[in-house]
Amino acid sequence: LIMGLKPNSALKASKTLFVLPSLFTFLLVGSQGENTAMDNVATERRAEESHRQDSANLLIFIMLLTLTILTIWLFKHRRFRFLHETGLAMIYGLLVGVILRFGVHVPRNMNNVTMNCSVNASPATLLVNVSGRFYEYTLKGEVSTVKGHDVQDDEMLRKVTFDPEVFFNILLPPIIFHAGYSLKRRHFFRNLGSILAYAFMGTVISSFVIGLVMYGCVTLMKAVGQLGGDFFFTDCLFFGAIVSATDPVTVLAIFNELKVDVDLYALMFGESVLNDAVAIVLSSSIGAYQPAGDNSHTFDATAMIKSFGVFLGVFSGSLALGVATGVMTALISFCFTKLRDFPLLETALFFLMSWSTFLLAEACEMTGVVAVLFCGMTQAHYTFNNLSPDSQDRTKQLFELLNFLAENFIFSYMGLTLFSFQSHVFNPLFIIGAFPLSLTAVPYQIAVFLGRAANIYPLSFLLNLGRKNKIGSNFQHVMMFAGLRGAMTFALSIRDTATYARQMMFSTTLLIVFFTVWVCGGGTTPMLSFMSIRVGVDSDQDSSVNGTQHRNTKHESAWPFRIWYNFDNTYLKPLLTHSGPPLTATLPACCGPLARCLTSTQAYENEGHQHNDDSDELVLNDGNATMYGDVTVSTDASGTLTTNHKHLSASTMGITSEEALDQELAFGEHELVIRGTRLVLPMDDPPEPTMTLPPPPTSPPPFSDPFSDPFSDPFSDPRRNRL
Amino acid sequence: LIMGLKPNSALKASKTLFVLPSLFTFLLVGSQGENTAMDNVATERRAEESHRQDSANLLIFIMLLTLTILTIWLFKHRRFRFLHETGLAMIYGLLVGVILRFGVHVPRNMNNVTMNCSVNASPATLLVNVSGRFYEYTLKGEVSTVKGHDVQDDEMLRKVTFDPEVFFNILLPPIIFHAGYSLKRRHFFRNLGSILAYAFMGTVISSFVIGLVMYGCVTLMKAVGQLGGDFFFTDCLFFGAIVSATDPVTVLAIFNELKVDVDLYALMFGESVLNDAVAIVLSSSIGAYQPAGDNSHTFDATAMIKSFGVFLGVFSGSLALGVATGVMTALISFCFTKLRDFPLLETALFFLMSWSTFLLAEACEMTGVVAVLFCGMTQAHYTFNNLSPDSQDRTKQLFELLNFLAENFIFSYMGLTLFSFQSHVFNPLFIIGAFPLSLTAVPYQIAVFLGRAANIYPLSFLLNLGRKNKIGSNFQHVMMFAGLRGAMTFALSIRDTATYARQMMFSTTLLIVFFTVWVCGGGTTPMLSFMSIRVGVDSDQDSSVNGTQHRNTKHESAWPFRIWYNFDNTYLKPLLTHSGPPLTATLPACCGPLARCLTSTQAYENEGHQHNDDSDELVLNDGNATMYGDVTVSTDASGTLTTNHKHLSASTMGITSEEALDQELAFGEHELVIRGTRLVLPMDDPPEPTMTLPPPPTSPPPFSDPFSDPFSDPFSDPRRNRL
């Protein structure tokens, strides 16, 4: 994408083959410049002008983001929680969109001469002979000629419109990677079965339900005469797929701040993250559904099976690729142990390897975003343990920043595009007002809600049959309500807006995103209290409160997970990281020599610590650094505020473990003073600095949980790292 | 640049005005597809294929960088210092270039039909009517038709060639910003006069000398008949300007590791950084030299004065813009003090503001790179003091990473382009071998060396007349020898390769960069020891050794600097940062009320500390955090190795302060244990943790230097932060 053609580069090779003996009569308004020097100057000036314009447009977005950041800060400062930063970004985007559309009148660029050649081929490159000098043109795409409306200030609005591939190749990857990298893995794996069910079966069910409801609507509209173009069943299914991708951003930010029940959090986060992966592959499979022959929109069993094969192949291929590069990074950082001395090199390597996952997947015709997700999870599970503490911080912070910027950029662009996009299908209605608009959107909203309901409720019922730790009806309602649509839905719908159906989808999707982010996002906090969901729960606190439950985690989990867990703990962790037990301890005696040569010296050193560490979950088995107390170590963005929110949530919401919170409140004052303190001391040092801190309030020493160790989160508390 | 046109968007507005009644006869090899669905599929497939190819090409670069990182690590690990990472990146790039050129044979893309329309206009957008459907084409640039050679595998090589604007808009800004942000300001300002002289007068002298020598060569070549195209005097001057930009990367990395004399370091770094800014503006001014009338390559006094005006205007405009946004960021972070609680927001804001400097400058037709440089310096001087310690780390690490990636990317691309660029002027010679090639390059090398000599020696002589602390002849020789050419020279020369002269310049520049990076870069270490330059000098140690010299810094400095320093310390620092004395203390009594309302409460708090802190330079007057001991606080990339290099350099080179180093060596072991320890404690806390550390070895308590305080570097030691 960034990669372009070098101007003025040669085009000789293909020219010799495909030279078209051409005859091109012309009639041009303007002078017939003979002076080549003057022509050169003019061309350069045009290029400069275009660059200047591009810079100015990008500047608009940067300013928008800056404004959003300052306002977010104000909101956070005032603890205003009914409008999330993404909702805010959208509002600012909308305002700028309105200004650009109705306020700014840029005179039409007279240099943009449009020639109307009639040929019957659309080559990728066109060479135009202008009085003996050759100019290279590249294909941008087809221009739809059926336009029902007259747009006045085309130029400016077209300029602020990005190539939709920017979303897929630049903005989405860091967001998705960050989601994978910051996944709270212990609770994720505890609920793996349910998450997979919601993400895979749920998304497919939802797509088909939405598709069917939509098809009903479309047929109805066609009968009434409201439909202005083709809208096939595959289009409906495609719409169902893109709208089924729920967004983890907004709701989970609120969950983070309120410290909602960990299981609900894990279910929501896991589902939304995998959801995106499923939706993107599903939509591309539906796009690949091409029945044989001319009857291109009828049902064809073989084509359907082929589509299903594409889905499976692309998904598993991307997954394998992502995991493979993740494992490779882990191996590199495992083998080059001395790389730990150079955090910059380490961070750069980590970044490049994660990026190359995306590129590799795209080059292999897989889905880069899906590969990046699983790469992120693998990196967090294995590579993270091999990194130096400095690099752990750096990588976390880097991807946090990239995620933050990309997310807010997408949402502000969404707001802007509502007015700047020029092919909205119900365009005349926009000018009259929002009322008919929302009427048009009602059937779609109904479809989306029905789809979500068909996903959550039946599946929860089925899952509860097998789960020991049931998914309560209040959880189900929250999951139903909080299924926001966001960046992924938007990116998928803006990718192709060539046909009438796609344009209609895009417009509708925008409205759905606005509605869910503002209404559902804003309503999450009241919803949680209405449904009496536990808030203010610390993940560790949770497990200590339900002591026996925690101990039984392993038996609660689904069997495929148990097998995998054993395999991972016995072979993979020792092979790929420095944190597990040495292979010599886990492999059978006959493999002794092999195990010895594959085990690093550090793993042996760890072995001793391992046994000590088992008794205290707060001590990360990082092999190099000990962190005392979860609260003091966190150097995250919302440090002080987290504490404050605990106050708030404790007073407004129903809380289960009262005395634990009392302790925390008492501790709060102290925490404020110590904030910014960061103690990463070597193991052998006596823990003197902790003398000034009170002991961690919620974790009594006899806390040995054999399960919690291998999945002890490398992030001291990833849920707090989100703003 | 990233911003593109949305495919399929409307083009109606201009169409109605400029519709050309056209007649286009065609003769196309291939089928005349009637089925629109099939056409659509074909277009999509072509776009996918192109995207796949782009991903694969980008992947090549990412892999190159990964390989470079691993090898660099090996070099660093083995303390191999004769080939810098940038030289290494170039070698890998060369290898891949050779493979792509001679090894890979990609079949020509049959879809790239090139049509040869004869019109006499080159509009920015072209609309082609293909049997009733309209396709949009955009202008890529002119294709040079005079090609003396036949390239076989055009397609692949063209694909790995980037748009040269990528360098200016994406890769250079972070490099230049990092240079400004990590400038060691105390020593920079101490040598400000000399640095400005070298950077401004020196660069201009160098450009003209190189231009004149080149013009001689070109006239000679023309006489001999070796010249294959036009090469005007302005071209020679342009070449002089782009080749005068010395690169700070390679040599300074070596200087860092060896801890070379701080004054030499400051001179080299300051000159190289400002050099780049001068060269880029100078070259664009020379490009803007357009004499009136048709005689476009003769001398014209008015045009020359106009060019000079452009130079002054663009340079001062960019400087003002950069400083303005820097000050604005400082003000924002000064006013929104509570932003410190959210390091993520703070870092994002810092990043966006710095980026917007670049965009703003480009949108105002200034030079973004120059603006970014001065923005970086302003950010380091003011904004940095207002940031939370966490954000200080984050911003430093972020730009360090961006700089590292961009730098190595450029250098590996340089290596690759030697073979992938298809318009090298001495192309046939390449195949025969490097020998005739280097012969061709000799006159240019001579010109470059003469230019450098004409810059350094006369200016040093003049400067020494005024300086108390003379620039020794050994310093001059090193500055002469270590004037490498790097990223900026390359970016400037690849920007425009349309004409014969520019192509020749580009090829020559590449050779010059290779030569200087490999030969001069590799020879720096022997050169330093040959010239008996002091190495292993700590910047603070240096000042304690030359106690009286340090105390007199202010009187040594140039008078404009002294005035500015007083102004800065009295008004700007208190106004913009939390670190200076409060305005109430510095402003005259009559301005009392104004001063009181402009002073933050934090500044008052600082006032008390200020007096205490004066006695100890190692305590940063950060208002919030105290760092104990420069060595233990540094969490930089080369922590352990810095110590090791000290060992090495102490044993191999002549060292002045023996006992200080002995202490450091004794301390070294301890440092290895404590590495990774990071103590950022609140002011009010008793400094308990330092009890375990020995007192800083090289800075005795009575170290009050009124000058060192305002410029006390916020980076504990920026020179160590470079790898």
Automatic annotation (TrEMBL), chains A, B:
<dbReference type="GO" id="GO:0015386">
    <property type="term" value="F:potassium:proton antiporter activity"/>
</dbReference>
<keyword id="KW-1133">Transmembrane helix</keyword>
<dbReference type="InterPro" id="IPR018422">
    <property type="entry name" value="Cation/H_exchanger_CPA1"/>
</dbReference>
<keyword id="KW-0050">Antiport</keyword>
<feature type="transmembrane region" description="Helical">
    <location>
        <begin position="428"/>
        <end position="454"/>
    </location>
</feature>
<feature type="domain" description="Cation/H+ exchanger transmembrane">
    <location>
        <begin position="68"/>
        <end position="528"/>
    </location>
</feature>
<dbReference type="Pfam" id="PF00999">
    <property type="entry name" value="Na_H_Exchanger"/>
</dbReference>
<dbReference type="InterPro" id="IPR006153">
    <property type="entry name" value="Cation/H_exchanger_TM"/>
</dbReference>
<feature type="transmembrane region" description="Helical">
    <location>
        <begin position="195"/>
        <end position="216"/>
    </location>
</feature>
<feature type="region of interest" description="Disordered">
    <location>
        <begin position="681"/>
        <end position="723"/>
    </location>
</feature>
<keyword id="KW-0967">Endosome</keyword>
<feature type="transmembrane region" description="Helical">
    <location>
        <begin position="401"/>
        <end position="421"/>
    </location>
</feature>
<keyword id="KW-0813">Transport</keyword>
<dbReference type="InterPro" id="IPR002090">
    <property type="entry name" value="NHE-6/7/9"/>
</dbReference>
<comment type="similarity">
    <text>Belongs to the monovalent cation:proton antiporter 1 (CPA1) transporter (TC 2.A.36) family.</text>
</comment>
<feature type="compositionally biased region" description="Pro residues">
    <location>
        <begin position="688"/>
        <end position="704"/>
    </location>
</feature>
<feature type="transmembrane region" description="Helical">
    <location>
        <begin position="57"/>
        <end position="75"/>
    </location>
</feature>
<feature type="transmembrane region" description="Helical">
    <location>
        <begin position="166"/>
        <end position="183"/>
    </location>
</feature>
<dbReference type="GO" id="GO:0055038">
    <property type="term" value="C:recycling endosome membrane"/>
</dbReference>
<feature type="compositionally biased region" description="Low complexity">
    <location>
        <begin position="705"/>
        <end position="715"/>
    </location>
</feature>
<feature type="transmembrane region" description="Helical">
    <location>
        <begin position="231"/>
        <end position="255"/>
    </location>
</feature>
<keyword id="KW-0472">Membrane</keyword>
<feature type="transmembrane region" description="Helical">
    <location>
        <begin position="348"/>
        <end position="381"/>
    </location>
</feature>
<keyword id="KW-1003">Cell membrane</keyword>
<dbReference type="GO" id="GO:0015385">
    <property type="term" value="F:sodium:proton antiporter activity"/>
</dbReference>
<dbReference type="GO" id="GO:0051453">
    <property type="term" value="P:regulation of intracellular pH"/>
</dbReference>
<dbReference type="InterPro" id="IPR004709">
    <property type="entry name" value="NaH_exchanger"/>
</dbReference>
<keyword id="KW-0812">Transmembrane</keyword>
<feature type="transmembrane region" description="Helical">
    <location>
        <begin position="506"/>
        <end position="531"/>
    </location>
</feature>
<keyword id="KW-0915">Sodium</keyword>
<dbReference type="GO" id="GO:0098719">
    <property type="term" value="P:sodium ion import across plasma membrane"/>
</dbReference>
<feature type="transmembrane region" description="Helical">
    <location>
        <begin position="309"/>
        <end position="336"/>
    </location>
</feature>
<keyword id="KW-0406">Ion transport</keyword>
<dbReference type="GO" id="GO:0005886">
    <property type="term" value="C:plasma membrane"/>
</dbReference>
<protein>
    <recommendedName>
        <fullName>Sodium/hydrogen exchanger</fullName>
    </recommendedName>
</protein>
<feature type="transmembrane region" description="Helical">
    <location>
        <begin position="87"/>
        <end position="106"/>
    </location>
</feature>
<keyword id="KW-0739">Sodium transport</keyword>
